[in-house]
Specification:
This protein has 236 residues and is an alpha+beta fold. The protein folds into two domains: 183 residues, NADH Oxidase, CATH 3.40.109; 34 residues, no CATH class. Helices cover 38% and strands 12% of the residues. It has eight helices and four strands. The chain has a four-stranded antiparallel β-sheet with strand order 1-2-4-3, sandwiched between helices. The model has no long low-confidence stretch (mean pLDDT 96). The structure holds flavin mononucleotide.
Amino acid sequence: MTDDFSEQEKRGFYKAIYSRRDVRSHFNSKPINDEILSRILHAAHHAPSVGFSQPWNFILIKDMNTKKKIKESFEKEKKRSSELVEEPKRSKYLSFKLEGILESTVNLCVTYDPSKFGPFVIGRSSIPEAGLYSVCCAIQNLWLSARTEGIGLGWVSILSNDTLREVLDIPEHVIPVAYLCLGYVDDFAKKPDLETAGWLPRLELKDVVYFEKWNDKENKDWESIQKMIKENLDYA
Ligand SMILES: Cc1cc2nc3c(=O)[nH]c(=O)nc-3n(C[C@H](O)[C@H](O)[C@H](O)COP(=O)(O)O)c2cc1C
């Protein structure tokens, strides 16, 4: 059995997971040192990918003019999406701070290029979305690595991909997957902002784990773990 993480290393790993937050406000202006930024990008680049296709690219952005154009797209899309929800939720939604594009020191667009090492990629023929999933794995690596370095990261998806393509010169066949805002913060919130604001609660683990078949939440062959899942024993 391989158990090459010490107890302390395991704690550190889970600490990153449980204390990671989506950060939209309270970025401070401390610059991100290039060595740290490159460490975070290396962590992202070591994510798993379908058929080892590594279909991601990372566009680093600090130009204020670019940021302003992206922010404009955010404002437009936020207004447009608010029309999809009725009052009083609409006003509540509009009151949320949902991006930190201008305040964060570095913006980062992560893209998916389906043509990389293609067209045949091992494992992607039956589930083409596996390529996109791989990019999300890279983003999660990046997010956890940033948290470990004390850097906040916020994912902004209230944006037009057409605008991202146009402003960032992204070719037609490449899909923008994530627009991320990175910067130091004085503090990481204990809970998701949307939980604190009473928008949605965190679901109980017991309500999302099934045994053997869809929706089977009680199964006597899984009794012991069922109990632990109900007790919400996490490693935070
Ligand atoms: C794919 C994706 C898109 C998201 N888009 C936005 C966004 O546009 N604006 C925002 O404020 N947060 C966005 N978030 C952050 C979520 O709201 C956040 O992850 C969730 O509320 C849980 O909070 P936590 O990340 O702090 O645990 C996004 C997260 C993901 C995974």
